[in-house]
Fold each of these.
Amino acid sequence: MQTTKTVFALLLVSCALAQESRPPQVQPRSAETQRSSHFPMPRSGLSLNRDGEGDGSQTLAGMLAEFCRVTGQNFSVSEAARQMLQATATGLVQPVDVPPAQVYPFVEALLIDRGFVITELRAQEPRLLALHLTRSNDPSDRSRARERCVLVPAERIAEYADHPALMVRTVIDVSPLDARLVANTLRGVIRDSELQNILPIGGVTSLLVEGPGAWVASVAEMLRDAAEIEREWLEKNKPAPEDARSAVPEQR
């Protein structure tokens, strides 16, 4: 019965993760949460134009230049990625004013939707990021992206729900679930094994989770939910204490 309950909890997680086949939906978060995240608050918001306005469609290259201006970040970009940025429009139908607290999630959501992920090369000033093509014919670019994941403590991973394109990794304690069973159950929901990974590590209840920040934060939240379901079931169904009288030897 306990095994059935454990598998049921994991199937709930699998079904939820299956919804990640589409680009992550970025939920608005407070300015205070954004300030406490890995990157500093942008100096100002962004004003992005709709396609065809002014001199032509705004490209991802133009959007990224504005992003660097307001955030103080800089990018190292391969020639292939640079050409793709210059050739790809943002795809926005209407102009949009992005407030400072939403600059990172908005820009990253567009980047990952167009086939890019971000890694961090330098966390100190001057800051430096790298841009990787996820749809490149060169699989080594995706492999490098996962190798450069930012290591995030499990208690802070929720902050990275605001970073749908930034590659991160964390270790989640899924006790009382078995990490190997969890990893095997969730193997089918990994869309790109060169960008996403769920792997047992260390003890029998520890999982290493790697991938884009919003995806990893979502996985971590659902794993914790599944672990909590299991804990509640175990508590509810634990054996009742023996009757004190049954422990007393029978008097003859």
Note: The chain has one domain: 2-236.
Amino acid sequence: MNFYKSSKSKIHGSSYREVLKEAEAIFKQIKSRTKRTPYARSKYFRSEKIFLNIFWSHLHEKHERERVRRLKFYACAIDLIKSSSCDPITRENFKQRDEVLHRFSGKSKEGETFTVQIKENKRTKRKDLISIFPDN
């Protein structure tokens, strides 16, 4: 399996507030670049936009401990989206046939592995960041 070695380190902190504050600062910086939906341009998808809003709604469905685990890799995930040219694991979404899921694997600066999942709509070609989670 190909891993993208991120130049960013994990967000430090043990409580949800500490980690959320730093992750929101990163998101706010990205959001300030556009008046519309925040996005990051992906190297793998030839500079196409990956929209970031769905991730936040997905994150708030999780328990607080799980949110912390996932948010710690937010900086690494944004770096992976922007810079990775490694091939993801791609498969059709079993819940909705008009969507394709791309799973990119990465390693933080500390060497911890994580996965970034991007959803692509087959008809519109819109790509959204769905989830970031550490590999156990």
Note: The beta strands are 4-5, 39-42, 48-51, 89-92, 99-107, 113-121, 127-134.
